[in-house]
TrEMBL record:
Organism (species): Kordia algicida OT-1
Name of the molecule in the record: OmpA-like domain-containing protein
Region Disordered, annotated ranges: 261-281
Signal among keywords: yes
Protein location: Cell outer membrane
Keyword terms: Cell outer membrane, Membrane, Signal
InterPro entries attached to this UniProt entry: Bact_OuterMem_StrucFunc, OMP_bac, OmpA-like, OmpA-like_sf
Length: 560
């Protein structure tokens, strides 16, 4: 608390002294400024070695040539090929139904004949006492009895019969030769030496470059002194000569710890190869261990089961008696002859047709056997084997011969430098005497910048506005203040921070255009300097709030 009181007292004394040093004989309506002359800096380029010079080693590998070497990969031998057996086809007959007999019925013969029968016997009559007649019946055989022969057919059954369709034969099978392998050693390649490179090693370090020296500048306070008698608070301000610390840039650099080196070692050391010579290769050669042979394999006969019909019971006959046919006829018979004169009456005859049937008989007919022709395969020539020689095979192996051993080539890598721009103070600034200035340059000038909601990013239109209105003023050498404001909506803290970011965004854009940062003061006032009634809790239109959202600039001093 005591430090704050002493600081306030010092500012009050400085303010009083500053107020006493006003321009003499000022004219009404004129504006005066006591310029703060900025420190003048000059940009100088400094080269910093970020990577030292070192050696870079490159190995040229050994050169080899490939030589073709012909070796026997398979020794000569023989192989057997089978000449298969030759087969022919024969036909043979098989009785599928044996010969038998059947009885054929000889039908009865029917003939017709006529027979005269007395239908009225001869008689006589008396002239006085006629004879007495009566009608009587009698039987006449119209067809005598005969015998009928009925055939009982033979009984057959079907039996399975096995027949040979292909006779037994033989086939010859080749037992292939048995082959083995043997390992043959040969000189596959020659070895040179390998070079192991150890690249240069570096250590990381940092080098600090002062790009902007320490300085100091006059700054006007925002808060007026408590004993200011003027109704305009801008008439009284504290001027403080504040120190600006130096700005340093830390550049990462590399330091050479050890330069590159190389170590030569043989590509193959027999001591590290299990005691075996280096570069030996092996290949596998096929050799015949046992020659080929043949063996005879019997082929069984091929049979087929067929169906054959066999007569079990021959046909027979049985006799059937056919009774005679009898016809009952009537005839008139004299019962009492006449007792008087007898008159002879001749007999009356009638011709009767009758059918004579002879008995049926049978005759024997032979049924020939039924046979079927089949084909069967018969071996006409047994199989045999032919021996075919197998020539030896040769293969070409590639062997590697050393032509030139490996070597190392050195290359000098130069140091790498980085150019750093630093500011060097060439002329010290300070307060000047009062000068008359154009009053228009002391008031705030609006920049028509429409910020996006909650954003502090300059749009393309905003950059064109700065290029047109503000950049030409700064290029004359004056110092300016960038002031940004918000409306009352939102918290005061967030509005203060947003306005400061927007003012700084304009400042950063000007610096990117080549304006020295010492010529620009950026201030964000948030909602502290409203132009209308639109404070917290007051209902306003969007147009009224828009009037408070503004970004401005004013000239702090003139170019000397």
């Amino acid at each position: 608390m005591r430090k704050k009181l002493l600081f306030g007292l010092a500012l009050a004394i400085g303010s009083f002294a500053f107020a006493q040093d006003l321009p003499t004989n000022p004219e009404p309506g004129k504006c005066y400024v006591r310029c703060v002359t900025p420190d003048i800096y000059e940009n100088r380029e400094v080269q910093v070695m970020v990577s030292p010079a070192y050696k870079k080693l490159k190995t040229i590998p050994a050169k080899y040539t490939t030589v073709n070497e012909t070796v026997v990969s398979k020794v000569a031998g023989e192989r057997l090929t089978v000449v298969p057996a030759e087969y022919g086809t024969e036909t043979f007959e098989v009785v599928t139904k044996e010969a038998s007999q059947r009885l054929v019925k000889v039908p009865s013969q029917t003939s017709r004949d006529t027979e005269t029968v007395v239908v009225k016997e001869a008689s006589y009559r008396l002239k006085i006492v006629p004879a007495v007649y009566e009608t009587r019946t009698f039987d006449v055989v119209t067809r005598p009895a005969y015998q009928k022969v009925e055939i009982v057919p033979a009984v057959y059954e079907t039996r399975d019969v096995v027949i040979t369709v292909k006779e037994a034969s033989q086939r010859m099978e080749v037992v292939p030769a048995e082959w083995g392998t043997e390992t043959v050693t040969y000189k596959k390649r020659e070895y040179g030496s390998s070079i192991q490179l150890t690249p240069a090693s570096f250590t990381s370090d940092f080098e600090t470059i002062e790009v902007k020296p320490a300085a100091a500048q006059w700054q006007m306070s925002e808060i007026p002194p408590a004993d200011c008698n003027s109704s305009n608070p801008d008439d009284c301000r504290y001027w403080c000569y504040k120190a600006i610390p130096a700005q340093n840039v830390t550049v990462p650099v590399k330091r050479l710890a050890a330069d590159a080196s190389s170590t030569r070692t043989p590509d193959c050391d027999p001591n590290n190869n299990g005691g075996k010579p280096c570069g030996e290769g092996t290949f596998t050669r096929t050799i015949m261990v046992k020659p080929p042979s043949t063996r005879i394999i019997p082929i069984p006969e091929v049979t087929k089961t067929i169906k054959k019909t066999v007569m079990v019971t021959p046909p027979t006959t049985r006799i059937i008696d056919v009774p005679a046919e009898v016809k009952t006829m009537k005839r008139r018979v004299m019962v009492t002859p006449p007792t008087t004169e007898r008159i002879e009456i001749p007999a009356v005859t009638e011709t009767v047709k009758k059918r004579i049937v002879t008995s049926e008989s049978t005759r024997v007919e032979d049924i020939p056997a039924v046979s079927k022709t089949y084909k069967k395969t018969v071996m006409t020539s047994a199989p045999k084997a032919n021996s075919i020689p197998v020539a030896q095979k040769e293969t070409t192996l590639k062997t590697t011969k050393l032509v030139e051993d490996s070597k190392v080539v050195e290359t000098e890598v130069p140091a790498v430098y980085k150019t750093v721009t630093k500011e060097v103070l060439t002329k010290k600034g300070g307060l000047t005497t009062w000068k008359e200035v154009d009053c228009k340059l002391l008031v705030y000038n609006d920049l028509n910048i429409n910020w996006n909601l909650g954003s502090a990013t300059l749009t393309a239109a905003a950059k064109r506005e700065i290029d047109t209105k503000l950049l030409p003023v700064l290029q004359t050498g004056v110092s300016v203040e960038i002031a940004s404001h918000t409306d009352s909506r939102g918290s005061a803290a967030s509005n203060e921070a947003l306005s400061q970011r927007r003012a700084q965004a304009v400042t950063n854009y000007l610096i990117s255009k080549g304006i020295n940062s010492s010529k620009i003061v950026s201030n964000g006032y948030g909602e502290r300097r409203l132009l209308n009634r639109c404070k917290d809790g007051v209902s306003c239109t969007e147009r009224e709030h828009l009037a408070n959202r503004r970004t401005q600039f004013r000239v702090l001093d003139q170019k000397n």
